[in-house]
Amino acid sequence: MKLSLAVVSLCAVAQLANMVDARCENIRVRQEIRSMSPESRQRFFNAIKLLNSGAHPNAHDKYAELHIKHATLAHGDARFLPWHRQLLREFEKDLQRIDPGVNVPYWDWARDSADPGASPIFSSEMLGHNGGSGECVVDGQFANWSVYWPTQTPHCLTRKFDRGNSLKPWWGTNAINHIKTASSDYDAFRRGIEGPHGNVHFGIGGDFTPMWSPNDPIFWLHHSFVDKLWADWQAESGNNLYSYGGKHSDGTSANLNEPLTPWGIKTGDAFNHLSDKYCYCYAPHSFTGDDISGKSWNGTMVEVIPEPLPEWWIKQQNMNVTDVRMFEADMAAAVREGQNPKSPAH
Ligand SMILES: [Cu+2]
């Protein structure tokens, strides 16, 4: 099989050639949602709407159900990254059955971290704004959407930014890059990245904060970015691709041969995103400063240190409070270091 050079450069993954399965003839490229053409973005939204168009419980509802049902193996657990990679792939296959040209985009929320609520993601053209009365999302592509879980009765999709009207900052690019570079093995990387991923869930609020978060289609954009961060980290060294370990939420040790429930595959099967069951890679984004919501000066992003995640929520997610606090301190140091020394004093 001949590997398309165009795809290799789009993916920008140094080790790509070694990872590509020969059966992977058509490598799909997941793009940052702002870098997509309006037409391909609309096709992605349309496919999701079709998935949620049948009577409840429908094909879209099963993702929130899976996420609730497998909460304790998919969170605060070594399987956090492979489990969500497989969930994303199943969802993407469902969309591709509706429109074969659709791939799941990612949302680089770290670039919007200083003022997330002003992100173009939260616009009437894309995912809509904060919830209105009754917290219901009333504008954007998924305005007045009907979702099913957890009550098993159709109800509106909700958002409530930081339990009020606006979104406070979350972790930005310097913080996330610190986790990537400071993690010498999978366990450190997974524990490090699960916390800042949680700030996004907790901040957006409404349906996005509890275990039925796949009700809000932001879920796919958010987890696609988390998956990209893992893919980028995997590509950083030859040892990282199949690096795995740490603990399950029940205290047992993780290994590549364990089952990845409920899909009948092994956890290790979900590591190479260029194996024949996956065949996708991530394109770096191509947007400019104008498309980013955080305030900037001298061409440098402003990055702030977010409020710590609440202890009750960390526990609800099966995560370890001491661990999360340690990584929060590390990321805060990285943010301070990354600040431009010429920053205007306030
Ligand atoms: Cu999850």
Automatic annotation (TrEMBL):
<protein>
    <recommendedName>
        <fullName>Tyrosinase copper-binding domain-containing protein</fullName>
    </recommendedName>
</protein>
<dbReference type="InterPro" id="IPR002227">
    <property type="entry name" value="Tyrosinase_Cu-bd"/>
</dbReference>
<feature type="domain" description="Tyrosinase copper-binding">
    <location>
        <begin position="75"/>
        <end position="92"/>
    </location>
</feature>
<dbReference type="InterPro" id="IPR008922">
    <property type="entry name" value="Di-copper_centre_dom_sf"/>
</dbReference>
<feature type="signal peptide">
    <location>
        <begin position="1"/>
        <end position="22"/>
    </location>
</feature>
<keyword id="KW-0186">Copper</keyword>
<keyword id="KW-0479">Metal-binding</keyword>
<dbReference type="InterPro" id="IPR050316">
    <property type="entry name" value="Tyrosinase/Hemocyanin"/>
</dbReference>
<dbReference type="GO" id="GO:0016491">
    <property type="term" value="F:oxidoreductase activity"/>
</dbReference>
<dbReference type="Pfam" id="PF00264">
    <property type="entry name" value="Tyrosinase"/>
</dbReference>
<keyword id="KW-0732">Signal</keyword>
<feature type="domain" description="Tyrosinase copper-binding">
    <location>
        <begin position="216"/>
        <end position="227"/>
    </location>
</feature>
<dbReference type="GO" id="GO:0046872">
    <property type="term" value="F:metal ion binding"/>
</dbReference>
